[in-house]
Design a protein that fits this description.
Structural class: mainly beta
Distance between the termini: 41 Å
Strand content: 25-35%
Strand order of the largest sheet: 1-2-3
Number of helices: 1
Number of strands: 13
Largest sheet: 3 strands, antiparallel
Helix content: under 10%
């Protein structure tokens, strides 16, 4: 019998496997073994509002009107943002939006296109 990994969130030892996902019954956290290996290789893993993993060069769509700080302009719902770059920090997407310019976005306000 193979040794199952401990939960990355609560370090619980009673994890179990359901198909390709690992589940912790103590805290309810679910993760895949593939995501762990990708995170170890890349170091930076960013997910959109739906939980899809984002990568450099992806195209995303804004899911909420976003006010631009220091300006009266607004990034409208449905705006497509092409060629994003992942970065560290609270605003973890670096991009250029047509008509507004270069700015940083939070990944929780976008979905993968």
């Amino acid at each position: 019998m193979s040794e199952l990994p401990h939960c990355p969130q609560c370090q619980g030892q009673y994890t179990y496997q359901d198909r390709d996902m690992f589940i912790c019954p103590e805290c309810g956290h679910e993760w895949s073994g593939e995501a762990d290996s990708a995170q170890a290789d890349d170091g930076l893993v960013v997910h959109d509002a739906n939980g899809n993993q984002l990568a450099d060069g992806d195209t995303v769509t804004v899911i909420k009107d976003l006010k631009v700080k220091g300006s009266s302009s607004v990034v409208k719902v449905g705006t497509k943002v092409k060629n994003i770059r992942l970065c560290e920090g609270d605003h973890n997407l670096d991009c250029k939006i047509d008509g507004i310019g270069a700015m940083k976005l939070k990944s929780e306000f976008v979905k993968k296109a």
